[in-house]
Design goal:
Blueprint lengths: L1 H21 L2 E4 L3 E8 L2 E4 L6 E4 L2 E8 L1 H7 L3
Antiparallel strand pairs: 1-2, 2-5, 3-4
């Protein structure tokens, strides 16, 4: 049912958040892997003014698709 699908989806999102916070990685077998990457501070430019700005260090979530998903997208 729609309600059960909603509950399952919310549970998967909670597990994803917990996995990224604790282990910095969350794997959905056959779909792909979500992982946290530390990005060091760097300098960039304001596109409107061309002025140099410093961009603070941050963490980003990356996604690497699994083999089954890659094959599906590439019609294999």
């Amino acid at each position: 049912s729609k309600q059960e699908a909603d509950r399952i989806f919310v549970a998967v999102l909670k597990a994803l958040k917990y996995g990224l916070q604790k282990d910095r990685r969350f794997i959905l077998v056959g779909f792909g892997t979500f992982m946290v990457k530390d990005v060091p501070a760097y300098s960039g430019r304001n596109p409107a003014t061309g002025e140099k700005i410093s961009i603070a260090a941050s963490r980003r979530v990356l996604f690497r698709p699994g083999l089954e998903l890659k094959n599906l997208l590439n019609d294999k």
